[in-house]
């Protein structure tokens, strides 16, 4: 998908109790553990409590987890804003698209929505993502969304048997046009 391609229409919304099954599936998918910092199984109870107890205020929670829906109201994935730092005006972004919706532009569309939100509402200076350096699809997608690679961290991610390098991708909001 090139930068000139038309992206799918999406809607971001807050996580709801009926999203518990999706959250359970994503958090317990061992294939995704290599791309994030969590590597334990979560019970439905723990995830239910997370949904029930989230304040829905990024300044209190220091994070926001949003559901990505397509124009047919199908849930295609989740995008997270984590490690929100209002003092330094930055946050980390993470995104998971369900397998059947990958390579269709949903991730890039969601990132564009997040960039607009973090620029216009949170007034952030930058977003960043840590990506396994072997994950060429994610690196390419973030590059296509306007992120640039700023560093490589040696042996940053551990998959249970081997360490992997991670790249830091950054998007400087005020310098880029949305």
TrEMBL record:
- Sorted alphabetically, which CDD domains does this protein's record hold? NAT_SF
- Look up the signal peptide feature and give its range: none
Q: Where are the transmembrane segments?
A: none
| Superkingdom of the source species | Bacteria
Domain named N-acetyltransferase is located at: 10-174
The name of this protein is GNAT family N-acetyltransferase
Origin organism is Xylanibacter caecicola
């Amino acid at each position: 998908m090139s930068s000139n391609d038309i992206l799918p229409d999406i809607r971001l919304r807050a996580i709801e109790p009926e999203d518990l099954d999706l959250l359970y599936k994503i958090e317990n998918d061992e294939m995704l553990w290599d791309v994030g910092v969590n590597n334990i199984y979560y019970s439905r109870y723990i995830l239910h409590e997370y949904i029930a107890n989230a304040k829905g205020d990024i300044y209190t929670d220091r994070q926001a987890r949003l559901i990505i829906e397509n124009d047919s109201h199908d849930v295609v994935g989740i995008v997270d804003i984590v490690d929100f730092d209002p003092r330094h005006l930055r946050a980390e972004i993470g995104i998971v698209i369900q397998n059947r919706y990958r390579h269709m532009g949903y991730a890039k569309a969601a990132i564009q929505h997040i960039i607009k939100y973090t620029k216009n509402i949170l007034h952030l200076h930058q977003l960043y993502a840590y990506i396994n350096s072997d994950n060429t699809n994610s690196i390419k997608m973030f590059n296509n969304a306007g992120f640039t690679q700023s560093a490589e961290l040696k042996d940053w991610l551990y998959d249970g048997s081997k360490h992997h390098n991670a790249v830091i991708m950054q998007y400087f909001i005020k310098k880029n046009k949305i």
